Records
---
Amino acid sequence: MDHRHIFVRPARPEDTKKFIDWSLETPNNGFDPEVAKYPSTFVLCAYDKDGPLAYMPVQQVFMMDSVAGKPGASRMQIASALKEFTQALVTQAHVKGVGEIYFLATEDGTNKMAENQLFEELPYRAYRVKVAELEG
């Protein structure tokens, strides 16, 4: 078993060709070349004493969390509010260099709203880490 320590650093300009080549050659990694172009994306490099082992682009996204609608508001009013939230986030994405906006839908009405708006359904499972829960 290889017990060499692996470190992580930001990718450097001289890593670009390797990062792109390896990203395209790695099967089933879901690499989207557009993500690397987002202004807020950064790339990490895992390496050991022999050099780079892997690269990972990390994009900063907007994640629409939950909707707290006014009790008694109509479905149309909430749908209109969601549309306006989405438009506001598109504007903020331009301001902050964010390339993607995610919406985790859990209710049929909001699922339909998302499908009728700008959102595309993704074929991925979602996972999360709550950083505050990592320590004691």
Note: The mean pLDDT is 91.
---
Amino acid sequence: MPDRYVLRLATAFASNTGGPYTAAWDRAVVPSTGTLRTAWAVATSITSNTITNKVDIYRQPDAPAAGSNTALTVLIAPITLVNNRDAVAGTIRASNDRVTAGDVLELRTYSGNIGSQPNFLGLTATIEIERD
């Protein structure tokens, strides 16, 4: 069994609907316990390189209380995308940031562009996890 695996979070489009970092555009269940190692984001098209275009990855612990939203970012700061098709690395919040099997990772975004029109097209975030 490989000692590391990746989870891919992707969406055809994302916008500012609901406000910054509120909408989860994609989710992936963590299959096995491990340590978060790296994160990357890329979009085939962004609204403008003069507008803030940020991507974040949140972790929702397994089995939260009904109706609660205890999701927190796993990155020190959101990943800023400046140009179309540029793959940009993010920095994991702690060198030993952990996930457990059943946790859910969520793709969230923020753009300085006003409105609900798509700000990101073909957005993908990838996170690498080292198994225990």
Note: The chain has a mean pLDDT of 90.
---
Amino acid sequence: MSSDFYMKINDYTPEPSGVSLTGLDLNAANFDAQITLAQDLVTAINNISIGLAIRWHVQHNTQINADESAAATNAFAQREAKWLVRYHGNVGGKKYRCEIPCPDLDLLDANNKGYMDLDDAGVGAAFKSAFEAYVKDEFGNGVTVDSVQHVGRNV
């Protein structure tokens, strides 16, 4: 019922980190639409991360963006810093989370420090929209993004 989405992002050193999510299985009827939604999600992730997107894939369809050994150009692109995305399933309300490395901290909400503004009609809202359009729970149901928080991780 679901397919794997994976995106590899290198930091400044260039150490890799990944983003793993679930979407609908690809088939002849939905292939073009799902790939378009995945591309929109990749763009949205690139717009909230200062890391270098190396590659991404959905099911068995891979897109290479840069050399595996390439590094992000911004010295603040460190994989130990993350966006923690909290979301829930629209059916049953099960809670989920994922991490996106190398957050662009210029996107922090001035009124809710530590969190991205998801209602700004800009990059945050575009990320939320692309995420909710592509990502599904393990049963193929839609999800809703609850928050995107800046966190630090020891990796």
Note: DSSP finds two helices and seven strands in the chain.
